[in-house]
Amino acid sequence: MADARTFAAICVGILAAVAALGTASARPLVPAERRYIPYDNALPFCDDPAVFERLQESFRDREAQFWNTGLEIAGLEEVKEIGYKTNGEDYIPRRYCTARAYFNDEKPRQVSYSINEDLGIIGIGFGVEWCVAGLDRNDAYAPNCKMARP
Q1: CB neighbour class for 97 (10 Å; exposed up to 12, middle 13-18, buried from 19)
Q2: What is the pLDDT of residues 66-125, one digit of tens each?
Q3: Do residues 74 and 57 make contact, with C-beta atoms less than 8 angstroms apart?
Q4: Residue 15: pLDDT above 90?
Q5: Rounded to whole angstroms, how far apart are CA atoms 49 and 38?
Q6: Which of 48, 66, 117, 148 could form a disulfide with 112 if both were Cys (CB 3.0 to 4.6 A apart)?
């Protein structure tokens, strides 16, 4: 009986210690705009022509280099923002967008993309990560570009 009480007391002590360490070791949540080297939170909007140009160029380059399809994005319609900083205030600022893209093969497809601060060339400006539904051939954002959305 004494052994059972001792064992229970030890278990309770271990759980209390683990709980105390868990809260003590959690990192503080500092908004990205208040870091030592802060983000300025200056992201273009989803329908910005510079964003469309980056998306268009990146898609064209990938298709030419890896898939040799000749596909190009001709235009975007129904552009809408579906999330902004949805990962948390302390992460790299991201704006999540979706649009209907029209291609040179005359087939419309849904494109999901994010605009990311300081993820442009050598960490300057903004970067655009994207996924076109039906054309995610290596399943980078599988299933059907779901992982490209918040």
Answers
A1: buried
A2: 999 999 999 999 999 999 988 888 788 899 999 999 999 999 999 999 999 887 666 777
A3: no
A4: no
A5: 26
A6: 148
* Six token digits for residue 130: 């994207």
Q: Which of 110, 114, 60 is nearest to 86 (CA)?
A: 114
Rounded Cα gap, residues 94 and 91, in angstroms: 8
Rg (CA), the chain: 23
Listed in sequence order, the DSSP H helices in the chain are: 2-24, 49-62
Please, are residues 126 and 120 in contact by the beta-carbon 8 Å criterion? yes
Q: How far apart are CA 145 and CA 138, in angstroms?
A: 11
Q: Which two tokens stand for residue 69?
A: 């399809």
Q: φ and ψ at 76, to 5 degrees?
A: -125, 140
The answer to whether 103 and 69 are in contact (CB under 8 A) is no
Could you tell me the residue ranges of all domains in the chain? Answer: 2-29, 49-148
pLDDT tens, position by position, 23-38: 555 666 777 777 677 7
pTM: 0.76
Evaluate whether 122 touches 142 at the Cβ level (below 8 Å).
no
